[in-house]
Amino acid sequence: MKQKKVLVLGCNFAGLTFSRYLHKEAGDHLEITVIDRKNYINFIPNIPIEVFNNHNPADTLEFEFQKFLKSDGSEFIQGEVENIDADNKKVYFTPNERVGSGQESIEYDYLVVALGCKLAYDKIEGFAEFGHTFSDTFYGNEVRKYLYNDYKGGHIAIGSDRFIQGQSPKLPKMPTALAACEGPPVELAFSMADWLKHHKKGSEKNITLFTPAEVIAEDAGETILKQLLPMMSGMGYGYKKGTIGIKRIYKDGIEFKDGTSLEAEMKIIFPNWEPHSFMKNLPFTDDQGFVITDYYMRNPDYPEIFAVGDAAAVTVPKLGSLGHMECEIASKVLANEVLENGEKIDPLHPMVVCFGDMGNHKGFYMHTDEWWGGNTSILKMGYTPYILKMGFKTMYKTLGGKVPSWGMPLSEILGDHTII
Ligand SMILES: Cc1cc2nc3c(=O)[nH]c(=O)nc-3n(C[C@H](O)[C@H](O)[C@H](O)COP(=O)(O)OP(=O)(O)OC[C@H]3O[C@@H](n4cnc5c(N)ncnc54)[C@H](O)[C@@H]3O)c2cc1C
């Protein structure tokens, strides 16, 4: 049988995990090629932990992946993806090891889009000069330097700009979020307060969380929020909701689109998660440029196109754990088709599974599908969620993204039943 060509675009969480799972399922029958502009994984969720421990996250959270792809027999190309011609099953890219390369093209039988999003800080006036964030190692290290050298003990605002979720009549019915991913701001509020206390620079009272929505972390569901929000306000955190979005950041604060403002020495921002510009107006994307898929992660008009992770329209909130579930499903669906297996595969059941750091070796764990109409709603705090968060990083690094099939269910069992 002639090997089918599978082209995977992007090789961070979703791209690497998908490629490795697909190889496990049907590697001998496929020629897998992966393209990314960089040749290492950026382990984003653990950046805050490294920053608060005064480590440059670039030293500890950039993991190599090429040896894992090589051991699978998958090919890696380092290049900038520039266009997708879905009708001719062709992707255009420019190799980027050195500047000056010419544009190349590559054909596929199956295409898997795992390109994540653009984090649109450039659309926020004043961010470059006055803003801070934790979404990559550069920005994380800037926060570290500020905290350890310049922080004067002033107020800290943590929150999100407005997320513009894509729409399309071809998408499954799903709720609409006004912020892309509010687990990180909530996590940072906890771990920042711990850092302030530990360094005798302040407490929860220094921090205000803000959100463009009517409630922060709405995807955590009502039951969890009824526990979490009163607890946080009792601890002394400030809370500002319904900001609509960020108008601008200035030296001493943030001006919001609802006409109000918030004074702060540090402005820690999560922006709009926007699709990459070349994804807009493609025949398989929604009105923003997110890839339209069903809950098997497959495009209805171009069934040879799949999407996993933040690039997929159904990934809301933009959460790595949702992307992980999608990789398991999409790799099985594709392998099933190539191997002509009739195996039944369950579609994605969207849910939040999240381990957050709270500082002092403690963490929180959320497991809920309430926002999507389900009735699972678990919130736990203690040492176990922190251990699981750190354990996941080690497992991911050691296994090169190929977390065993029992990894997530085991974490859920431990998380759901943890008592410390
Ligand atoms: C501070 C922070 C904390 C977080 N914590 C958690 C957490 O605790 N748990 C959780 O589940 N999620 C968490 N998330 C969300 C999680 O990081 C994302 O959901 C995840 O990174 C998405 O993975 P992805 O592979 O889809 O996209 P990305 O990680 O964005 O990867 C996209 C890849 O595509 C490549 N790429 C993009 N464009 C091109 C191009 N044109 N050409 C070539 N290559 C390209 C990039 O180089 C990159 O490697 C957090 C996010 C942030 C910002």
Keywords for this entry:
alpha/beta; FAD/NAD(P)-binding domain; 7-stranded mixed β-sheet; single chain; 5-stranded parallel β-sheet; 22 strands; 3 domains; binds flavin-adenine dinucleotide; 420 residues
Structure in words:
With 420 residues, this protein is of the alpha/beta class. The protein folds into three domains: 179 residues, FAD/NAD(P)-binding domain, CATH 3.50.50; 153 residues, FAD/NAD(P)-binding domain, CATH 3.50.50.60; 70 residues, no CATH class. A seven-stranded mixed sheet has the order 7-6-5-2-1-8-19. The protein has a five-stranded parallel sheet with strand order 10-17-11-12-13. It has a three-stranded antiparallel sheet with strand order 14-15-16. Helix 7 links the parallel strand 11 and strand 12. It is globular, with a radius of gyration of 21 Å. The relative contact order is 0.15.
